[in-house]
Amino acid sequence: MNTDPHRIDPEPPESAASASALPTGEESAKRAAVDAYIKASSADVSETPEGGAPESAPPAEPSLPSLEELAAALNEVRAVADENRDQLLRARAELENIRRRHSNELEKAHKYALDSFVRELLQVRDSLELGHSAALEETVNIEKLREGTELTLKLLGDVMDKFGVAPVEPLEQPFDPEFHQAISTQPRADLPPNTVVAVIQKGYTLNGRLVRPALVLVSQQVA
To answer: CATH assignment of 164-223, given 1.10.10.10, 1.20.1270.220, 2.30.22.10, 3.40.50.800?
Structure first.
């Protein structure tokens, strides 16, 4: 017991510690609210990815087709393939028929290209046979035989003109080695050198293309 009236004894430490260890009702409520907030924040952080966006649910796996659906699709594809194959075979057969038809037509064109020419030429042969028969008669008329020969030559000339056959007659024309063939030269003072002075054999062209050159004599300068 303190006998000094001016000395104040401190409170026992045990009572102060016990007073601080027992929180009031308001402090307990605050501490409970803080704990609840911390737990809620921890749950949000664990459920939210690092980017901040919520994780999307994984896509649902597509359902696989059934065996009946696969068989139906296979049959449809086979039907389309068979139709395409049939069309290909028909097109190939048509092309082969066209090729054979063209080949036959080309062969006939080569074989019978002179059909119309021969048909026109037959009348010339008929005229020649008539003239030959007339020449064999004992009472032959030379004048009529000459007229018949001239008519036959004219008929032959008409047939040749009809099919584009033209004679090459270069008499007194400059020598052209493309259409003429010189077999000899002849000195001539009345004509320039290299001029055709005589036609030994006529030449002929077919539609402008040389068939046979004309055999000619060519003038030469007098020495």
So the answer is: 2.30.22.10
Q: Is 213 exposed, middle or buried (0-12, 13-18, 19+ CB in 10 A)?
A: buried
Nearest to 177 by CA among 168, 186, 187, 165: 168
Closest alpha carbon to 169 in 154, 180, 157, 158: 180
Q: How do beta strands 180-187 and 165-168 pair?
A: unpaired
Q: What is the pLDDT of residues 152-187, one digit of tens each?
A: 999 999 999 999 999 999 999 999 999 999 999 999
Can you tell me the distance from the alpha carbon of 78 to that of 82, in angstroms, rounded to the nearest whole number? 6
212 touches 203 (CB < 8 A): yes
